[in-house]
Amino acid sequence: MVDKLTLNMITQRSIEEGVAMEKGKTTQEYFEACSIIEMNEEDIRKLGLLPNQLVKVTSECGSVIVKAIKGRQTVYPGLGHIPQGVWANQIVPPRTQATGEPQYSGFPATVESARGERRKSALECVQGAVGLWRSD
Amino acid sequence: MPKKIENVGCPYCGVCCDDLVVTVSDDGRHVLEVENACAIGNEIFHHASGDNRIKLPRLRQPDGTYKDISYDEAVDYAAKVLVKAKKPLIYGFGSTNCEGMAAAAKVAEKAGAVLDNCASICHGSSFLAIFDNGYPSCTLGETKNRADVIVYWGSNPAHAHPRHMSRYSIFPRGFFTGKGHKGRKIIVIDPRYTDTARVADIYVQVKQGQDYDLFNAFRTVIHGEDIPDEVAGVKKEQILEVADILKKARFGTIFYGMGLCHSDGRNHNVDIAISMTRDLNDFTKWTIMAMRGHYNIAGPGVVWAWTTGYPYCIDMSKKDHAYMNPGETSSIDLAMRDEVDAFFNIGTDAGAHFPIEAVKHLKKHPWITIDPNICMASEIADLHIPVGIVGVEVPGIVYRMDNVPIQYRQVLNPPEGVISDEELFERIHQRICEIEAEEGITQTGAAAADTQKSIVGE
Predict the structure, then answer these.
(1) If you placed Cys at B145, which of B41, B52, B119, B175 could pair as Cys (CB 3.0 to 4.6 Å)?
(2) For the whole model, what pTM was predicted?
(3) Residues B300 and B392 in one domain
(4) CB B384 within 8 A of CB B73
(5) What are phi and psi of B421, to 5 degrees?
(6) Quick check: is B40 in a domain?
(7) What's the number of domains chain B is made of?
(8) What SS3 class is residue B302?
(9) Where in B62-142 does DSSP place strands (E)?
């Protein structure tokens, strides 16, 4: 068992994200669809995580708390997937290899258990980042 | 009496399904039923008639709250921001019609803005590769009627384009493909075992970020040369097996997605995919197509290419010529270098879909969001202007992922008083002209622009 694991991160669309996004990005559905990380079972075991435990994912430009799940669409050991959306973009590096496209797929991020922390809502993530968030 | 409207286009993804049947209430205000749409398209139509629509522009107050203002006030505010800014960025357009895009291009030229669309963070790499290497493509109809081998590479239509497989690629029976999916071979190449991979005949698990290597291996084999025992995590036997299927196809189409454009290599991944397609045409007929995301994200590429000469990342800040250089004039790079001093977000959600670092940079300056719905971009904006939903409340032309134009319909009336993107941009353009006349603006750039032939063709 290890405390921290470095994964190769990717972020892509999921249909749950698509449906929830059209319903509204402030809905519970969007929160549940996007504030997750899909990991290989082997990696979940290595970190000693319980099913649906919260983890802190940290990249070169920030960190985010998400729920670790195995997911239906499986990834191989060493690869992690956060669905496209607000939570993924808290850690996506904005470097573009001179093409205009950020590094949405293929950036290193460490994953560790996030005991005692909570997932932020979409609004708290984005408004918080630009100084507009006021807790309700 | 509820009204049934047939052949309605769906304003979600680049497949642009145009076979929806929408039943609306007799007052034309509510969608009662949507037939043929996927789960996401269905949600769009039902959401439109929800009670939580924004009906008036909202201006951010000093205490951080929003206050409703009139459209006239919003147009005035937007025009003044554009006149004052040295280099505003107008970005988005994945979810609006071509009429709105043309009107926005006029505003961008007038204001000396950078005009960019969602391709900038999506299939922009494809544009770069296509400029370099050509685009041996086809229409979706040709794939449906002719293709007996389909490759999905770094693309997951089961989630991102839910009806792509049933309408055009795997399942439909076409003119020369009467056996439907029984007569087709499906190859899915992806690092994840996706839901699309589940319906494939062959699933190739490529190591993330090593697509270029795998393309190279395929090209080597297709040219009759030998390769190592394993490339990009894929065994030589499987590469040989797939290459053989590709060469023996009667007609094939490679559909590729963000797996190529968002990973290391970007445009080079697409470049070599096009080269492989060209190689395969020495043996049989192969085509390649980008899986465009939004229903009209191909639109700005087409509309602006014929109005300004470039499809995206168009810098018109000098006012007398347009200039494009992704990496320099692309939205994310401009934001990260703090090179723009006002941001317009239209028909997209930069708040949710830009890396948060870029959002923080853009938010240092006035941020105006033009969108029918509440989204992250609207909730951090200084001004949010609601507009009618294209494809539901506003008709118009959209370009499908294969660049085929489709006329979208209106099925509902927009909420009272809510205007279209096109009307909004026309009014902002008008207001900028008025302000410049009032203030007698005689900056060299602006004066030069008046005597020059305009960049944006009418």
Answers:
(1) B175
(2) 0.95
(3) yes
(4) no
(5) -55, -45
(6) yes
(7) 3
(8) helix
(9) 66-68, 89-92, 114-117
Tell whether B280 and B359 lie within a shared domain.
no
In chain B, what residues touch A92 (CB-CB under 8 Å)? 355-356
Same domain? For B65 and B7 the reply is no
Please report the residues numbered 383 through 442 in chain B whose beta carbons come closer than 8 angstroms to any beta carbon of chain A: none
B301 and B324, same domain (yes or no): yes
Percent of chain B with pLDDT over 90: 93
- The pLDDT of residue B49 is 82
Distance from CA of B326 to the nearest CA of A (A): 5
Q: Least CB-CB distance to B208: which of A19, A79, A85?
A: A79
By residue range, what is the domain housing residue B232?
A: 124-290
Neighboring chain A residues of B266 at a CB cutoff of 8 Å: 97, 99, 101
Q: Within an 8 Å CB–CB cutoff, is residue A81 touching chain B?
A: yes
Q: What are the backbone dihedrals phi and psi of residue B218, each rounded to the nearest 5 degrees, phi first?
A: -60, -45
Note whether B72 and B140 are same-domain residues. Answer: no
A100/B262 Cβ within 8 A: no
**Residues of A whose CB is below 8 A from B335:** 94
Neighbours of B132 (CB within 10 A): 13
Contact of B286 with chain A, judged by CB distance below 8 Å, is answered with no
- What CATH number is given to the structural domain containing B87? 3.40.50.740
Render B417-456 in DSSP notation, one character per residue: T---HHHHHHHHHHHHHHHHHHHT---HHHHHHHHSPPSS
Q: In this structure, are B165 and B242 located in the same domain?
A: yes
Whether B25 and B73 map to the same domain: the answer is no
Is position B452 within any domain?
Answer: no
Question: CB-side exposure of A128: number of CA atoms within 13 Å?
Answer: 12
* Residue partners of B3: CB distance under 8 A and separation at least 6: B23, B24, B26, B28
The ipTM, to two decimals, is 0.97
- Residues of B with Cβ-Cβ distance to A127 under 8 angstroms: 379-380
pLDDT per residue over B172-231, tens digit each? 999 999 999 999 999 999 999 999 999 999 999 999 999 999 999 999 999 999 999 999
Asked if the structure places residue B262 within a domain, the reply is: yes
Q: Is B236 exposed, middle or buried (0-12, 13-18, 19+ CB in 10 A)?
A: middle
- Region B139-146: mean pLDDT is 97
Judged against a pLDDT cut of 80, whether residue B446 lies above it is answered with no
Domain final residue pick, B236, B259, B290: B290
Binary contact (A24, B373; C-beta < 8 A): yes
Q: Which domains does chain A have, with CATH numbers?
A: 4-130 (2.40.40.20)
